[in-house]
Design a protein that fits this description.
The structure is a single chain. The chain is mostly helical. The protein has one domain (about 5-410). About 85% of the residues lie in helices and about 0% in strands. The chain is built from 13 helices and no strands. The chain has helices spanning about 5-55, 60-70, 75-105, 110-140, 140-165, 170-195, 205-235, 245-260, 260-280, 280-310, 310-320, 325-350, 355-410. Helix 5 packs antiparallel against helix 6. The protein is globular, with a radius of gyration of 21 Å. The two termini are about 30 Å apart.
Length: about 425
């Protein structure tokens, strides 16, 4: 099948997958904000931001490694699937324990520590479900991934929204989400194994060591990208912002998260095909990757510009007048979207091209840059300062990644 047709077919199913997941997640956040208010929304966003950074331990680059290697070496999936699952299960335990320890170190009360642990379990369960999803993505069986993610998302998010509708508070809602996520994780892995993938967990330290060595740069990319993207909310309580203010800012971030489905689904659809091309016909890979980068740049400008221009109207329509202070940061987050789209594509381009270390270095230095600017601008400008930092950090990453991508192309043309 020609690359355009393969990518187009994958894109259709990835669009359905992302549409289901992002829409349900967004509806849940809107319901949470409207029914429980700014403070509860701020607490949930803080819990999510902290665990989103920690949960990378469950997937230290292994999903990306699987999706990259399987189209090139089909035996990789069958040889490694069980070992990867065994490693992920062990890492899940470390993730939940580490999340609770963070709560103790941060000085949170027992209730907050308990909520962190629950969120850690829920996020770790979701990460294991994403592993099942990555298996189908690596085989370009996107229709299976769509079914798996659709059933899982509808079940977990549907239960959470139902809990809110029935009058549950934040604690009960999080318990419902966690229990339903655990159930869906067990189902997802069992269902995937039933489709002919050997998923018997293997406890093999030698194999684990080899897998972690290969995925280490990918793990660094995952960690630093998530860390600098989520650092502002995690730092906010220590920089003078109230939970209410965090809720306002997080409403804008959630809108940004929603539109980031566009670069995510485009690159996820193209990843297996482009990975195979990079192995067999490198010039074709460069050509199609540049086409994808151009599409991302144009769509980022269009979407980000629309968000910035209509920020007050978007906030009012989705979250209500109580969240009107979200409009200011959302304007800057719209500007950030313009560059985040292309950043997403450039980092993936370097990964597919095998330039793991280069991509890792680029996103690694973005974290101290982001933290430093947040330390300066949040106390001075509050919510707007955090949004400006996100825009500036991703702009710096795009410039660095673009230079690396151009140099890589020049080196291969010699």
């Amino acid at each position: 099948m020609a690359p355009v047709r393969r990518i187009g077919k994958n894109l259709v199913f990835k669009t359905l997958t992302e549409l289901i997941g992002r829409t349900l997640s967004f509806v849940f956040y809107v319901a949470l904000a409207r029914w429980l208010g700014e403070e509860a929304f701020g607490i949930f966003s803080l819990l999510y931001s902290v665990t989103a950074v920690v949960v990378f331990l469950v997937d230290p680059g292994l999903n990306t490694l699987l999706i990259r290697q399987t189209p090139r070496h089909p035996d990789f999936l069958h040889e490694s699937a069980g070992a990867i699952l065994g490693l992920k299960l062990v890492l899940t335990v470390f993730t939940v324990v580490f999340t609770a320890i963070y709560g103790v170190i941060a000085g949170y009360d027992h209730m907050m520590i308990g909520l962190l642990a629950l969120m850690g379990i829920q996020m770790a369960g979701f990460a294991l479900t994403e592993y099942a999803s990555a298996i189908f993505q690596s085989m370009e069986r996107m229709q299976m991934e769509t079914l798996l993610v659709g059933v899982s998302k509808i079940s977990v998010t549907g239960c959470a929204i139902a809990a809110l509708w029935l009058g549950a508070g934040l604690e009960t809602t999080l318990i419902v989400m966690t229990c339903s996520q655990v159930a869906m994780t067990v189902w997802a892995l069992t269902w995937t194994a039933g489709k002919g993938v050997s998923l018997s967990p293997r406890l093999d330290i030698v194999v684990w060591k080899g897998l972690l060595k290969k995925s280490a740069p990918l793990a660094a990319i995952t960690f630093f990208t998530i860390a600098y993207y989520r650092a502002d909310v995690a730092m906010a309580p220590f920089l003078g912002l109230s939970l209410q203010e965090i809720g306002w800012y997080s409403a804008g971030v959630k809108i940004l998260d929603g539109v980031l489905a566009i670069p995510t689904l485009l690159m996820a659809s193209a990843f297996p095909t482009l990975s195979g091309k990079a192995e067999s016909r490198y010039p074709d890979f460069r050509k199609w990757m540049n086409v994808a980068l151009g599409l991302l740049a144009v769509s980022g400008i269009m979407v980000g510009g629309s968000i910035a221009f209509f920020a007050p109207e978007i906030v009012s329509a989705l979250f209500g007048e109580r969240f009107s202070p979200s409009s200011g940061p959302l304007l800057w987050l719209g500007a950030a979207a313009c560059v985040i789209f292309i950043r997403h594509g450039l980092v993936y381009a370097l990964i597919i091209d095998g330039k793991f270390r280069t991509a890792a270095i680029i996103v690694a230095w973005a974290l101290p840059l982001n933290v430093t600017m947040n330390l300066v601008l949040i106390p001075l400008y509050g919510l707007d300062g955090a949004a400006v930092v996100k825009c500036l950090t991703d702009t710096a990453v795009v410039i660095s990644a673009a230079i690396a991508w151009i140099k890589t192309g020049a080196a291969n043309n010699r």
